[in-house]
UniProtKB/TrEMBL annotation:
Keyword vocabulary terms for this entry: Aminotransferase, Pyridoxal phosphate, Transferase
GO MF annotations, alphabetized: pyridoxal phosphate binding; transaminase activity
Gene3D superfamilies: Aspartate Aminotransferase, domain 1 (3.90.1150.10), Type I PLP-dependent aspartate aminotransferase-like (Major domain) (3.40.640.10)
Taxonomic source organism: Litorilinea aerophila
Protein name from the UniProt record: DegT/DnrJ/EryC1/StrS family aminotransferase
Amino acid sequence: MAIAEPIPLVDLRAQYLALKDEIDAAVARVLDSGWYILGQEVRAFEAEFAAFCQPPDGAAPGCVAVNSGTDALHLALRACGVQPGDQVITVSHTAVATAAAIQLAGATPVFVDVDPETCTLDPKALADAVGPQTRAIVPVHLYGHPADLAPILAIAREAGIPVIEDCAQAHGAQYRGRPVGTWGDLGCFSFYPTKNLGALGDGGAVIGRDPELVERVRLLREYGWTPSSRYVSQVPGLNSRLDEIQAAILRVKLRHLRAWNEKRRELAAHYRTHLPAWVHRPVERPDSTHVYHLYVVRVPQRDRVQQHLRAKGIGTGIHYPVPVHQQPAYQAGAQVAHPLVHTERLAGEILSLPMHPMMTPTQVEQVATALADALPTIQS
């Protein structure tokens, strides 16, 4: 099969061109304003993103825009009282940012295994890992699929431990009809350019229903300053400000996010229909709404399959090739609660296929056909 044009894993340029007039006008508005940090664009985005995350059974959460998804997690952990010497339970099958944020807060990551079907934190593994030094739990809504929050929250509440949701890949995903990020004590988002809601640079946000926790994050975001005591730090904080240009761009893109998420779900359904039977498809739990930040399959002889697709002009990725607990930076400074059997096996099988809202069903079919053509390669 010949593909007329290469099919990229993501296509950020196509997304920009689709919104070029809106984005250019938003950037020009900021440049003309003369105010570039923590101004009206950031305040407006915080309100609009909070409204986007509003659950059907309650008010919109508070929202604090920050410099990155990593900072969102770091500040959320500190706001929840995590200190040096504490332990924070999370998964090793995640972007390294999850563990980096825990270490930035001075705590020790404690890794538990994942459910092999959803690739998210296994509540049974969590129950066995909670100990006297556990001060927080960070479930990761990986690839756009929510973690199984009800049993996770039950374990956390019984132990009196806060839950901080890592929603970096799950903007708009829902668990039992309610947006992720509004279940735990705080929810943390990344606006890295490739995310479902991505800036044209770095950015992040923390949302929460507890006004005191949200204000604690806001205090930490800018050196511990309050509006009435600027230049006087009330607590040790840091510089984690979202700039006005990125906020303005995010406001433009937020208006399209629901439609883009629906397009991703349509493309995922098309993949399910057309992929060959030997390719293990992503699983979506009946109580969850997957937003397919990534479309991650599992295949035998993954590296050979990836090479075959590359030769056909099809971009792929591996999210993630080395579990965090096996990376040099974390082998000494983290703990593994029990053997991470599923985590380690997934790392050798997973393959991210092209997925973005500018993609077409025809391209999905071309990827599926190329995968079908790979079968003789892996059988030889």
